[in-house]
Design goal:
heterodimer, A: alpha/beta, Rossmann fold, eight-stranded mixed β-sheet, seven-stranded mixed β-sheet, 15 strands, 37% helix, B: Rossmann fold, UDP-galactose 4-epimerase, domain 1, 2 domains, two-stranded parallel sheet
Chain lengths: 427, 291
């Protein structure tokens, strides 16, 4: 059987990572985006996103001629399968903007070969895929759930736990060429109707958010009663009903855009059909509440006692291993600290987004003469900081480290006041 | 959440209810900050009297900032509720006719349900009392009447401070009891926690809201809640009093009240509330009963 040629239309985070993983699995992959400058950069091997393994696999597959980029939609005519792979943009409230997706579909469908199939990979709301029957026969149309994680996207795309595929009719056999592609990833393939698959994607994210919200609620109680959430977590992970990989680490509210979008979608559907949605509202409420965790500590412990403190902030990205700052807790914090002295460093994020802060170029430079150190993104590079480093460079002795990035260091014996989620103040 | 629309107001500030506990402190603060103030008390214009609307219309000028403190509180019965609504009706009728530059309404945290234990500006307003319902109605009446005028709604928690005419359960009553040499009586063991705000802080927040022409809702609370027992003990300690705390049989279940004041940190990053102990000390000094 001939290897099918795979197309990806839309070169945002989802498209690039999925295309690179597909090429790495040995398929000739054609990547289209109408953004000419983006395509030029990709052709010049310049990536605009940060993901572990991505630069290496990206370069390798270009050199092997398995990965090709074009701003000419007619190139997709060669493809047996075309993925619609543009991330759905969202606004600050998590509302999806589907205009770009509709426009992309029109362009792609005009350039599909007569037997090619179209797979919707982007994060569309339930009901979206079936509506495309006006443009393309349902027998050539599939929806596939994406479950990429920022900061671990290539690995997730290369080694998916399972494929969830939506079809027009669950009794319909999966297209042979499509099967050939999916089988190359050596994981279970679950087929269901479009609506179930579209909702499956959102269901996964709802469960993740539910876990995070429970962890947030309980970890705050830990901070008040002297319990330690990090001691409780291993006990939860060994419970099969909760599991080793569950999202039970507390955080500073959900960020990144994807989880927020899916909760907003669920709220909209619930409102449209009159179903009970107070739990999803509570998740958003909890998320907004958690975003102010660092700000509250600063006001209660620092600003109430010290005049004009210098704050060193390490990390701007919403999580480690990504340059995404969508709904980043660091940016939300900095937005409310404009009247204070700020020294900021992030290994990959562009500083233009926080022009009111002083940009620093290294960790040491950032913490120099700082009264307070705040670690807003748990980058690996920050984990190497020691008590001696802090004593050497900092003026003050206050550390706010929500994600417990500086694990294994006894700050209390070094007379530091150390604040972390789920434990409160260790001082 | 509050949004700021401009910095530094040069408009005249009219305080409706200027002689009351809250109003008088606001007037005093704004006068200290050199604002042009025009105070209106019940003696000047009785908002329940027939000529109130005409009188108020005569007094207000275009571009004034109007601070509405005036109300009959605590609102304990239907008659008081109706009167408070009638007073606001007069105010609403007048503000529809005059292009004010800014309106600030001093509401109350009673608009939130009594069962809510952690309150923020995002909490749903679902009053459990006539007093809360009165403030909520008045907020809604104002919102419907302001047209394009910027409106700030401030919802203070329980207040304490000098010249409080009320003798409600809490710091003011306890201090009076100490002053008279009486013992302090607590409900149950005084376990309920409340967020007590020093009255001068309310005036400071109002001043910031005027200066920034802020709009939206802001709770006025310190973010720290103390039990009535702690309050009584602190007062006795600070005044070195020999008085005793008496506990009594509890008739109602214990309900605590905390505030998440992130919105205040965001709206006014440099503002600091007076710590409860310091606030008590200030009052005790005035009463000349400090240790």
């Amino acid at each position: 059987m001939l290897q099918p040629i795979i197309g990806f239309a839309g070169m945002s985070h989802l498209g690039i990572n999925s295309a690179v993983a597909t090429a790495e699995r040995g398929f000739h992959t054609i990547c289209f985006d109408e953004d000419t400058s983006l395509i030029k950069n990709l052709q010049n091997k310049e990536l605009n996103i940060t993901e572990p393994q991505l630069p290496e696999l990206f370069s390798k597959n270009i050199e092997l001629n398995r990965l090709q980029f074009s701003d000419d939609a007619s190139q997709l005519y060669q493809c047996d399968i075309v993925y619609l792979s543009h991330d759905v943009p969202t606004n600050g409230q998590g509302m999806s903007n589907l205009e770009i997706i509709h426009s992309l579909i029109q362009k792609v469908c005009k350039n599909l070969s007569p037997n090619a199939i179209l797979v919707v990979l982007c994060q569309v709301p339930p009901g979206f895929t079936r509506q495309l029957q006006k443009i393309i026969p349902l027998s050539r149309l599939y929806y596939q759930v994406e479950t990429l994680i920022f900061g671990n996207a290539v690995n997730r795309a290369l080694f998916p736990e399972r494929f969830i595929v939506g079809t027009a009719n669950v009794n319909m056999e999966l297209n042979q060429t499509f099967q050939q592609l999916l089988l190359a990833f050596n994981c279970p393939i679950l087929t269901m109707n479009y609506e179930s698959a579209e909702l499956a994607k959102i269901s996964i994210n709802c469960y993740l958010v539910a876990n995070i919200s429970v962890a947030n609620m309980l970890s705050e109680i830990c901070e008040k009663i002297g319990a330690n959430w990090s001691q409780i977590v291993p006990a939860l992970r060994l419970d099969k009903r909760i599991g080793q990989h569950s999202y039970i680490m507390p955080g500073l509210g959900i960020a990144g855009g994807n989880l927020e979008r899916d909760i907003t979608t669920i709220l909209n559907i619930a409102a449209q059909y009159g179903t009970e949605n107070s739990i999803a509202k509570a998740w958003l409420y909890n998320s907004r509440y958690r975003k102010s965790w660092v700000l509250k500590i600063l006001h209660q412990k620092i600003f109430s006692q010290y005049d004009d403190p210098t704050l060193a902030i390490l990390g701007l990205a919403y999580k480690e291993n990504t340059n995404s700052t969508k709904n980043s807790p660091a940016l939300a914090l900095l937005e409310n600290l404009k009247s204070y002295r700020l020294q900021v460093y992030d290994p990959v994020v562009d500083y233009v987004i926080v022009p009111w802060a002083v940009r620093k170029y290294s960790i040491e430079e950032t913490i120099s003469n700082a009264d307070v150190l705040i670690i807003m993104t748990p980058w690996d590079a920050f984990k190497a900081l020691t008590v001696n480093d802090l004593k050497k460079y900092m003026r003050g002795k206050m550390i706010i480290d929500p994600y417990h990035t500086l694990q294994g260091t006894n700050f209390t014996s070094a007379e530091f006041e150390y604040f972390t989620l789920g434990q409160g103040c260790l001082c | 959440m509050l949004m700021h629309t401009k910095e530094i107001s040069h408009s005249r500030v009219v305080v409706l209810g200027s002689k009351g506990f809250v109003g008088s402190h606001i007037v005093h603060r704004l006068q200290q900050e050199k604002f042009e103030i025009f105070g209106i008390s019940k003696n000047d214009i009785n908002l329940l009297a027939t000529e109130a609307e005409t009188k108020l219309l005569k007094v207000l000028k275009p571009n004034d900032v109007l601070i509405i403190v005036s109300s009959i509180v605590p609102c304990k019965n239907a008659e008081m509720l109706v009167n408070n609504i009638c007073m606001m009706q007069i105010i609403c009728n007048v503000i529809k006719l005059i292009s004010l530059s800014h309106i600030i309404y001093i509401s109350s945290d009673a608009v939130y349900s009594d069962d809510l234990t952690l309150i923020s500006e995002y909490s749903p307003a679902m009053p459990s009392s006539l007093h809360g319902m009165m403030h909520m109605c008045r907020e809604l009446m104002l919102k419907q009447s302001i047209n394009q005028i910027p409106l700030a709604i401030l919802r203070p928690s329980v207040l304490y401070g000098n010249s409080d005419p009320h003798n409600s359960y809490g710091p003011n009553r306890f201090l009076r009891q100490i002053e008279k040499g009486e013992d302090i009586n607590l409900f149950g063991e005084g376990e309920e926690k409340r967020d007590h705000v020093y009255i001068e802080d309310v005036a400071k927040v109002v001043s910031l809201v005027v200066r920034n022409q802020s709009t939206g809702v802001l709770n006025i609370a310190t973010g720290h809640s103390h039990s009535f027992k702690e309050i009584a003990e602190t007062i006795i300690q600070e005044t070195a009093s020999c008085n005793i705390i008496h506990f009594s049989k509890r008739n109602n279940s214990i309900v605590h009240r905390y505030f998440d004041i992130s919105a205040t940190y965001k709206a006014f990053p440099n503002f600091k509330y007076v710590a409860f102990k310091n606030g008590l000390r200030k009052i005790a000094q005035k009463h000349q009963i400090i240790a």
